Amino acid sequence: MSYADGLAPEKIAVLGAGSWGTTFAKILGDAAAGTERSIMLWGRRQEVVDQINQHHRNPRYLSSTELPANISASTHVRDVLQGAQLVVLAVPAQTLREQLRGWAGQLAQDAVVVSLMKGLELGTDQRMSQVIAEELSLPPGRIVVVSGPNLAMEIARQEPTASVVACADENTAKWVARLCKPAYFRPYTVDDVVGVEIGGIVKNVIALCVGICEGQKVGDNTKASVITRGLAETTRLALALGGKAETMAGLAGLGDLVATCSSSLSRNHTAGRMLGEGLTLEEVNNRMTQTAEGIKSGRAVSDLAAKMGVDMPITNAVVGVLEGRLTVDDLGPLLLARQLKSEGD
Q1: Domain 2-191 adopts which CATH fold?
Q2: Catalytic machinery residues
Q3: 194-336: CATH superfamily
Q4: Successive 10-residue mean pLDDT values, the chain, 345 residues
Q5: How far is 297 from 261, CA to CA, in rounded Å?
Q6: pTM for the complete prediction?
């Protein structure tokens, strides 16, 4: 198998031609410069595929970013998957299971699957790696998660960043890391898949709260407090599920949280800001061109926390706003009125 013996794949498939899927394809394409390796993107929209193939651009999602010549695209998933030893998934979390059921029989027998998705499945509260394992019957050593402070537009502009490649099998993680290491993207490897996924999931909900604060024009003290306490509740949930505290202090925890909560490029931060400015959830969704995953996954995070007996007041308050049980004006007083306790509790 290619990932076990260290051989580089001849073809990599990326399923999902949105901003992050296209950007990660660019990372893979730039890392493959000077080799015969090809990267093929699957996209739903013919106009997006045509732009990639004819002009080496995806203006719908990445403005004027030029893509490497070794990237091509198709709307036919069978063509994209055929012969691909590495398959990267970059589709909305809530559609993953249904899509995998249609793709399962088309993957190469020894393919490694990489998840770029940061969400929990509604109804099952499962992480994306768990959905992948169930639907594709893959062992943990062939499922990889990539996460970190990775705002797609900045990386597409080749602004330096670091990320985490997580897999239960160290050799597989290292194999994937070598395939996505252009000069501007630095991958680190870990074996804490749970911690990396939870960090990427919960930060979206916390970013909604920080965005709401910004929309209400409160100061940096408030936003810093939400980020810090948000990291605390993210860590509690990760540890309860078997994750590691050091992961939460690293790129996939603190790093991703700070980037998502601080940047206007973050979809979740932007959605929260619009809620804070007084827009309804329906109006926010109508204005968003891509999924704000925190809106979709908030309820699942809250349910999972309750199942595990983990206290997550910020998450629960944001879900209350999303579901119409609280107003944005209720958030501050509600969180500040909580019982006094030690910060370490």
Answers
A1: Rossmann fold (3.40.50)
A2: 203
A3: N-(1-d-carboxylethyl)-l-norvaline Dehydrogenase; domain 2 (1.10.1040.10)
A4: 68 96 98 96 96 96 93 97 97 94 92 96 95 97 97 95 97 96 97 98 95 92 92 97 97 96 92 94 88 88 96 95 92 70 66
A5: 16
A6: 0.93
